[in-house]
Amino acid sequence: MPIMSSEDFSVHADDCDEVGDGMPISDLPDEITSIEDLECQCWDEYETLAEI
Fold first, then answer.
1. Which residues touch 38 (CB under 8 Å, ≥6 apart)?
2. What is the mean pLDDT of each run of 10 residues along the chain (52 residues)?
3. In a 10 Å sphere around its CB, with 0-12 CB exposed, 13-18 middle and 19+ buried, how is residue 24 labelled?
4. Of the candidates 11, 36, 42, the residue with the CA atom closest to the CA atom of residue 25
């Protein structure tokens, strides 16, 4: 399940060390239309949004 950081509203994988405090979200924000929109390295293991 993705987690949105409370510091900068970036989206991270639930096992990411960089997320800090955050809130689990059930869906990715509408602004994220491809895997390249997710900036953190925690998403490198995924190739498409469908895998998330």
1. 11, 32
2. 91 90 92 94 94 88
3. exposed
4. 11
